[in-house]
Specification:
Length: 209
């Protein structure tokens, strides 16, 4: 496998788990999003309208730095790479946080920076129903995630779907994972490797394993 794949999904969808397994299976570099201490986050929670642009720009800069550093050390054409997030994540979440002129400015800045990064061969979205997401969030036990609501998860899912439906310049594949357990079931993991190794047209393709 010498392709650059991004594995995306909602909170609790299992994107990091799958990314780790695929990178190990293929023997390719792995890019995991590193948590950053965003200095604007506490201010954003207190005054979201005032600090929305600042918090999203800080995340944008950090994600670019992480990706730029990783890509500088990897020959994507020879080695390939699996990432558990895409740079487009910044644009998707900014679309929920920002409005009007602030969103248009952020979108312009994003486009300039994004043009300097390699584009993924395939953008994979792990689609999971809200009950499964809530169950998996509870199982992994991160305190700061336990207050996440079903409504918020559904909003995130809708934002990703809207993005993929409009992303005509990307090959996007949405995989329904509700009946898949690629951590414990070898056959399910094998099926997943087949799906993400497939060739897809530009635009959005939906797959039900």
């Amino acid at each position: 496998m010498n392709r650059y794949l991004t594995i995306e999904g909602n909170i609790g969808a299992g994107k990091t788990t799958l990314s780790n397994r695929l990178a190990e299976y293929w023997g390719v570099p792995l890019l995991l999003e590193k948590y950053m201490e965003n200095p604007f986050l506490p201010k954003f929670y207190a005054q979201p309208e005032r600090y929305g642009f600042s918090v999203e720009t800080a995340f944008l800069a950090e994600r670019y730095r992480q990706m730029h550093d990783e890509f500088a050390a990897v020959d994507l054409r020879q080695q390939g790479l699996v990432a558990d997030y895409s740079f487009y994540k910044s644009l998707i979440f900014a679309g929920k946080t920002l409005q009007g002129d602030e969103y248009q400015l952020f979108k312009e800045i994003f486009g300039i920076i994004n043009s300097k990064l390699p584009q993924p061969h395939l953008f994979v979205y792990l689609k999971a129903g809200t009950p499964k997401l809530l169950r998996q969030i509870a199982q992994r036990g991160r305190d700061f995630e336990q207050q996440i609501s079903a409504d918020y998860l559904e909003q995130i899912d809708a934002a990703y779907l809207s993005f993929m439906e409009q992303a005509s310049g990307l090959r996007c594949v949405l995989i329904d994972t509700d009946e898949l357990d690629y951590l414990e079931n070898p056959a399910h993991f094998e099926r997943m490797t087949e799906l993400v190794s497939g060739h897809y047209p530009y635009g959005l393709t939906r797959v039900s394993p």
